[in-house]
Amino acid sequence: MKSIKFGEYLVPLWLIVTLLVSGIGVAVLTDYVWKTITMPFEVKEPLEVLSYPSELSLYPGETKEFSITVMNYASRNYTVLLDFSLDNATYQESYVTFSDETYTVVPDEQNLTAWLKVEEYAPPANASLTIDFMRVAAEGEVLFFDDFNDGVADGWTEHLGTWNVINGEFFVTAGIVENGISTVNELDLTDCTIEVKIRFSDASAGFLAGIVFRYTDNEHYYAFLLSNEYDDAILKRFCPERPDYGITFAGLQFSGGEGYPVEPNTDYLLEVIIQGSTFRCFINDQEAFSGTDGNYAIGKVGLWARNADVFFDNFTGYSLP
Fold it and tell me: Which partner for 290 in 100, 105, 175, 280 could form a disulfide, CB atoms 3.0-4.6 Å apart?
């Protein structure tokens, strides 16, 4: 057998060949990144407005229909709502009525027919009409979810109070004379279901905490709230006249019920089904009460507390049919 001498040692030739081949094999199989590229990634809005009337003119007592042409570039149907508003809110409230329809927009081009009516006793006016197109998710579709397990509250705006993510929960400290408010970004909703797990800390009285909905600013929104201090659950409308405590328009004790026992360091599941001007409130999957109010039609959703240290988790927004 042929060998090669290395110093005092004779090494068989077959062993040297094996080692060389093995080394080459390792080199061939080693990953080697020779180029990295970066490119923009975009998911486009599937609906586009192609045409609409340049102006609308009508007489008192007249109802006028008009068409808006939209294009659906996607391969699925979308449910669309049209929200109408004049830049003269007082005139609109007194004299103008708009169509209130839900449209199914199929792939390709499609005409949406809408109407507006002016009361017969309306005075002459010049105003601008704004139409907001709102895509509505499929029934029961999750619109937003956050379990805060990533340690941050991305996608939230903190308006009032001190908010932090602690051990996978969203925690707020709100003092005796302040509210804590945080809302989900870029999610303006009309009808929907909101639920969240809530737990009062034993470090404060636990006056009130819960869910905010149809929020436009710190003086215009609704809230479904639980009270550790008063063992109660209530619905409030916040307005410029009562920006701190709001106006209670429904609740357990408020409606003659016996309230609801609330303990610190105990998890409670709050859920509110928001449909039109009716709000159904649930605690731990049991319907507690409902309330009706028609002041606010659309807005953001989020969380609220006052004179309480509260943990929130598993915040979820679902669509309604």
Answer: 280
